[in-house]
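Mods, move this if it's the wrong board.
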Amino acid sequence: MLPQHLRSFELAGGASTIDLTLPRPTGVVPLRVTGGMSAVAMHRPSGVAARLTVTGGAAQIVLDDQRVKGAGNLSLETPGAGSAPARYEVEITGGASRVTLDSR
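Not the wrong board. Structure tokens:
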């Protein structure tokens, strides 16, 4: 379980599966996952803006209702993410089979 106030998150070295339920951000919160992954799922609170950047490719990328298959390097964001004072900046490097960033 992650803390109620998260300043940043970084995972290096690769993993099979990551599933994170994120708290409401205060300010811009960077999340970085480096190294190959099979599946990465991050769930943020409803209404929280996010930007997702994937380098190294992914078989499937999902950001809310945006879905991309067989992508190389890609950047997606929720509406208004660039100017939102509180948001998640997610960076996945090294490739992944499936990347999901949704809201709950």
